[in-house]
Structures are given as structure tokens and as C-alpha cells.
């Protein structure tokens, strides 16, 4: 449900009465406390009331806030809306603790980590968990640790899912599609067992009021572990535990977790079915999912045949065109997207996952092309010191002349003269561009000047986020007793605040100094304004502490539309390096999606001494929409993009 980022409106504090009512609703629905007998003594009643209040506060703390949200759900991308509840417990940073749709309250993994036994806990192999984190549902054969299964795992019940590697740590939340508790066996069964709604790693998990990445799951949770031991499930889990992955690396059942289509999701769900008798190796796990493991020689042979098929296709469908419709030189991305990717016999996401260039003996396109050059199938050349291009292909070689086509997953619909521009050619291969699907966060930091240092004494560091600045300023004014006795929104100025942020040069400063007070919000804004600004761009949920901040505000990506040669419009894009975007791969993608010529050149006058060059991508035509879409695929938000249209006539 939260695979794609939901639209969350600004949060507002929840009224105490609403919070208590909501907490009682949760306690009643999830049966978190037993009914109290009627013949209690006053002391017992007081004790029961105190325990109930404590339970309320642990489920929905005093600082909880609510916010409306909208998202999509299911293969038909049905629009749903609801409310999220954001709060912090025991000094931790605020996270989404619950979400509500149609009056039903669902716990996040953060809530489950703090409240063992809130819902029934199901188990599945780690290899299946990876599919669940891609948006797939848990299929019946993927259930492990039973039968028997927990009695509460009935149709429509909210359940948690944990891996066999970490059986005491829930990593997903869903709703039972069947009566799991009634299953007598899972091997050989079919169908959905749990509809996955939320998991550690989705956008609900990563939401934060201070733009920090989501908290990683702990290694174990004592409360859940103790419950498992009491239910004597530890032995069952140990018997079905997945052994260590083999030397070739982790298990992946194919398909990217970003932008997965409905057919891909369905295939992923089938692959996620697993088995109650968990595989002890990647090979066995693939066999259970119906995937035949390919050797490296077979993968190499498949890629070579796919390239030959691609050339054969152009040769037979465009016999009369110059070079059979291919325009030399051919870049590595064009070769992959137009001559290899459409001709790989990948009928399932699992096969697509195996048929990747990084799993061949060549590991990359450069070595692949050079090998074909040595075999006299083509002539190549290294260009710009980092890329190998194809200058010519020997179309008369017997490898192309005697090639016999093989079945493909779907009928080719490539248009004549296309080099990856048609619908049939799959376009830029995302496997070559690691920026596609990346998650980016722009963190802003403020450093106090020497005059402001007294406000930040004892902090032990020099860089602060805006919420931290607000917190420290509030602590300072409370410690110095600067809050006005008549109006708590007004702050009295002391010599430190007056000298640090109100210099007396402007009329507003003079007015504030004359009154001796300033509104709290205006004071915080002036403190931030007086501090020096830095920024850091965090990628894919990395720890912000590992990213070195750079001075100044966050950079902007500039899109410029201008007119050349009289009435021809071109679109220029620059400033992408800071967002981990490869300009040449972006240019290759835009050349195909826009069906226009592109170029990549250093941006004149933009690079300082001893700094990396800033490159500019130029595309023929007014291509702003295509550029924005390509940037969004790479995690760039529109607020980080600045558009300048020079083609509009001045009034």
C-alpha cells in the first residue's frame, strides 16, 4: 500500500479526548486488556485505571499528531485515503505509529516492535521477505513454522510477518486473506495467505518530521522472543531456518521494487510462495519457486545470442536501409536497450533477475563489446576514456547469416529505424543506471556564529537541523526566564539575543529593541537567518552522519528552454551531479524517449578550480515534461528543480 510515497498533509496535534477515545478503540479491537471484574476494591480499581492509562499512553503518546493522507492500493491502483498518527515514545524521534482507513486502525512496525503479542505473528523465509518488501503478498506455500498456526490468524485479522532469520522481529503488516489458523498443510497449496499492507522499508516506515531515514529493525525483540519460547515455536523455527546463503551472494526472486506493474506483481507473488520446508540454499529456493538456476556459461551464451538476434532483427526487417537502420557509433546503452534487452528470453521476473549483465563473466558492457570485437563480429573504439562504442558491424558474418530465431516473451513491436525509441524496444535499461529508483533526501544544517554560541553551549557539535535549533532556542529562553509574564508568545530580549540578531540598523530592529520583546516565531526565524547554512544530500536511506555537509543551500537542477537558429527550441539541463545522476546515461534515455538528438558538454564558466566539471545535457525541442519525468525516476523532487523558459516573449 505504501510502496509509492503517499501524499501526507501537514500534521496537527490530536485532542486529548480524541486520543483517549482512539486508544480505547485500539485496546478493544486488539483485545489488549482483559475485562475488569465488578467486585474490585477501590485500591484495585485505582490500580486498574492507572494500568489502563499507561497502556493508552504507550499506544498513543501525549505528543501524537494526526495527518490526512492519500495513496494507491492494489494492482488497479485504487485511490484510498485515511489518517496517519505520528508520535514519539521515550525520547525517540517521531514516527508513524498507526494509520487508519475506513475506521480501522493498523499498527506500523514501530508499534509492533514496542508491543509484543499485539497481533498474531507469522513466519516466512528471508527469501520471501525480500519479495514482500517489493510489494508482493504472502502466498500460502510461503508460510513457515506450522501448522499449527496462531489461532488469531483468521480471515480479515491483522497479522505481522517475520523472517526465519529474525523470528522475533516483525518486518511486515498485513491482513489474512484466508483462515491461516485452519490450515493443515501448506506444501502444495495455492492462493494468497496474507495481503501485505506495510513493511520495514516502505514510505510509511521512512516518513520522518526531520527528514531522517527510517529506523533499522533490531536484531531481536525480547518480548516477542519470550512469547515464541512460551508457545514452543522456537524449535519449529529452528527446524525450518534458512541456511546461510551460498558464496554467490544473496537470494533475489527478481523484479525491481520500484514501479512494478500489475503483471510483474502477480509474477512476484507467485515467486514469493516459497515452501514450508525452507530451502537450505539459493538453488533449492529457486527450484521451489519454479526457477531453474542458470550457470554463468549459459548466461554468457544467452547474452551473445540476444545481441546476434538484435542485429539479425534489424538486418531482416530493414534490409534496404543504410546499415539496416543502425546509426553508428552505437553507445553501450543503445546496444543494451535496442540490441540485447528486447531479445533476452526472460519469460518471468525471476528469469529477468538472472539475465543481467553483472551476472555474466564480462560484468559490464565495455568488456562484452570488446569480446565481440575480438571475435570479428564488429569493430569498436574507446571514446572519451570511459565508454566503448561500436563503429561498425559485420552484417555478413555467418553468426548473423545462419542465425535461427527463438521464442521471445512477447511479440516484438519495434518500429523501423528505431534505436530503442519504439514501445517494443525496452528503452534505457535500469540495470545500467543505478540512479533510477534511488531515494534522495536533502538535509539542511545551520551553524551558529560566534555571537550565537551561548545559545548552543553544551550541544557538543556545530551543525543543527531547524527543529534542533528551535528546541535549543526554546531551552535557552526558558532557562534564562525570558518568557513574557503577560503573553507567553512574546520573548524578552537579553543582551545576548539583542547583540546577536537585532543589530538596530533597520526600522524593524529598532522597533523590537525599543519594545524589548519579540514574538517567539520571529525570534527563531531570525536566529536561523543569522546562522550559516549547509546542506547534505542523503541517498537510499544512508545515515546522514556519514554524509559530509557542504556549505550553502541545497543546489538546484536547472532546466532552460531557449530558441536557437531562429525558431528551433532546445532544452538544457544542468546541475545533476550533486544528485548522483550520470548525465550521459540520462542523455541516452532522453534521446530515446524524446526521439531527439542529445549532447553532453561541460557547462561553460560553471566549474571552479579543483572541482569536477558540471555537465550540461541539451535535447532538441521543448522537452521539459520528459526531463522532469526522467528526474523523478531518479528520486529528484520538483521543488529541487528550477525551470527557466526563455522562449516566451516578453510583454
Automatic annotation (TrEMBL):
Residues 444-530 form the DM2 domain. Belongs to the eIF2D family. Gene3D superfamilies: 3.10.400.20, SUI1-like domain (3.30.780.10). This is Uncharacterized protein. GO terms for biological process: formation of translation preinitiation complex. Residues 1-20, 239-296, 413-432 are annotated as: Disordered. It comes from Friedmanniomyces endolithicus. It comes from the Eukaryota. Pfam families: Pre-PUA (PF17832), PUA_elF2D (PF26292), SUI1 (PF01253), SWIB_eIF2D (PF26291), WHD_eIF2D (PF25304). Residues 280-289 have a biased composition (Basic and acidic residues). PROSITE patterns: PUA, SUI1, SWIB_MDM2. GO terms for molecular function: translation initiation factor activity.
Amino acid at each position: 500500500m505504501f510502496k509509492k510515497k503517499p501524499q501526507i498533509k501537514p500534521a496537527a496535534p490530536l485532542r486529548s479526548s480524541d486520543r483517549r477515545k482512539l486508544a480505547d478503540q485500539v485496546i478493544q479491537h486488539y483485545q489488549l486488556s482483559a475485562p475488569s471484574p465488578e467486585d474490585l476494591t477501590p485500591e484495585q480499581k485505582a490500580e486498574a485505571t492507572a494500568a489502563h492509562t499507561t497502556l493508552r499512553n504507550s499506544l498513543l503518546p501525549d505528543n501524537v499528531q494526526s495527518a490526512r493522507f492519500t495513496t494507491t492500493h492494489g494492482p488497479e491502483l485504487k485511490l484510498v485515503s485515511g489518517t496517519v498518527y505520528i508520535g514519539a515514545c521515550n525520547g525517540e524521534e517521531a514516527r508513524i505509529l498507526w494509520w487508519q482507513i475506513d475506521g480501522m486502525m493498523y499498527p506500523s512496525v514501530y508499534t509492533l516492535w514496542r508491543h509484543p503479542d499485539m497481533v498474531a505473528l507469522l513466519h516466512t523465509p528471508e527469501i520471501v521477505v525480500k519479495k514482500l518488501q517489493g510489494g508482493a503478498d504472502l502466498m500460502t506455500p510461503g508460510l513457515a513454522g506450522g501448522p499449527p498456526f496462531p489461532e488469531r490468524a483468521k480471515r480479515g485479522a491483522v497479522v505481522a510477518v517475520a523472517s526465519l532469520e529474525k523470528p522475533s522481529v516483525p518486518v511486515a503488516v498485513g491482513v489474512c486473506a484466508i483462515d491461516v489458523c485452519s490450515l493443515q498443510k501448506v506444501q502444495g497449496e495455492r492462493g494468497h495467505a496474507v495481503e501485505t499492507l506495510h513493511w520495514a522499508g516502505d514510505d510509511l516506515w521512512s516518513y520522518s518530521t526531520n527528514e531522517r531515514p527510517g529506523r533499522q529493525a533490531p536484531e531481536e525483540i525480547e518480548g516477542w522472543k519470550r512469547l515464541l519460547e512460551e508457545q514452543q515455536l522456537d524449535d519449529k523455527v529452528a527446524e525450518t531456518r534458512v541456511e546461510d546463503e551460498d558464496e554467490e551472494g544473496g537470494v533475489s526472486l527478481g523484479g525491481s521494487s520500484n514501479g512494478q506493474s500489475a503483471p510483474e506483481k502477480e509474477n512476484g507473488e507467485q515467486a514469493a510462495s516459497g515452501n514450508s520446508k525452507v530451502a537450505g540454499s539459493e538453488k533449492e529456493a529457486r527450484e521451489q519457486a519454479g526457477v531453474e538456476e542458470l550457470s554463468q556459461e549459459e548466461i554468457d551464451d544467452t547474452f551473445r545470442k540476444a545481441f546476434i538476434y538484435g542485429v539479425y532483427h534489424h538486418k531482416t526487417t530493414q534490409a534496404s536501409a543504410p546499415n539496416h537502420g543502425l546509426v553508428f557509433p552505437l553507445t553501450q546503452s543503445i546496444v543494451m536497450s535496442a540490441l540485447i534487452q528486447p531479445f533476452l528470453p526472460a519469460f518471468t521476473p525471476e528469469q529477468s533477475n538472472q539475465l543481467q549483465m553483472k551476472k555474466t563473466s564480462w560484468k559490464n558492457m565495455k568488456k562484452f563489446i570488446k569480446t565481440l570485437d575480438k571475435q570479428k563480429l564488429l569493430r569498436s573504439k574507446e571514446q572519451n576514456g570511459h565508454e566503448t562504442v561500436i563503429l561498425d558491424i559485420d552484417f555478413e558474418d555467418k553468426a548473423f547469416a545462419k542465425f535461427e530465431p527463438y521464442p521471445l516473451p512477447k511479440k516484438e513491436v519495434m518500429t523501423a529505424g528505431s534505436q530503442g525509441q519504439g514501445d517494443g524496444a525496452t528503452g534505457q535499461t535500469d540495470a545500467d543506471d543505478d540512479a533510477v529508483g534511488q531515494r534522495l533526501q536533502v538535509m539542511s544544517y545551520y551553524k551558529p556564529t560566534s555571537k550565537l554560541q551561548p545559545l548552543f553551549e553544551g550541544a557538543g557539535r556545530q551543525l543543527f537541523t531547524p527543529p534542533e535549533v528551535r528546541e535549543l532556542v526554546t531551552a535557552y529562553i526558558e532557562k534564562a526566564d525570558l518568557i513574557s509574564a503577560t503573553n507567553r508568545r512574546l520573548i524578552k530580549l537579553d543582551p545576548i539575543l539583542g547583540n546577536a540578531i537585532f543589530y538596530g540598523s533597520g526600522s524593524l530592529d529598532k522597533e523590537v529593541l525599543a519594545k524589548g520583546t519579540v514574538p517567539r516565531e520571529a525570534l527563531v526565524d531570525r536566529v536561523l537567518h543569522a546562522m550559516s547554512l549547509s546542506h547534505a544530500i542523503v541517498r537510499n536511506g544512508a545515515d546522514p552522519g556519514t554524509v559530509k555537509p557542504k556549505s550553502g543551500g541545497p543546489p538546484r537542477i536547472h532546466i532552460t528552454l531557449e530558441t536557437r537558429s531562429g525558431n528551433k527550441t532546445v532544452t538544457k539541463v544542468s546541475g545533476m551531479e550533486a544528485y548522483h545522476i550520470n548525465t550521459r546515461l540520462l542523455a541516452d534515455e532522453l534521446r530515446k524517449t524524446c526521439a531527439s538528438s542529445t549532447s553532453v558538454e561541460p557547462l561553460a564558466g560553471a566549474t571552479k578550480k579543483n572541482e569536477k566539471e558540471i555537465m550540461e545535457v541539451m535535447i532538441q525541442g521543448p522537452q521539459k515534461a520528459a526531463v522532469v519525468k526522467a528526474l523523478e525516476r531518479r528520486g529528484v523532487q520538483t521543488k529541487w528543480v528550477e525551470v527557466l523558459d526563455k522562449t516566451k516573449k516578453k510583454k
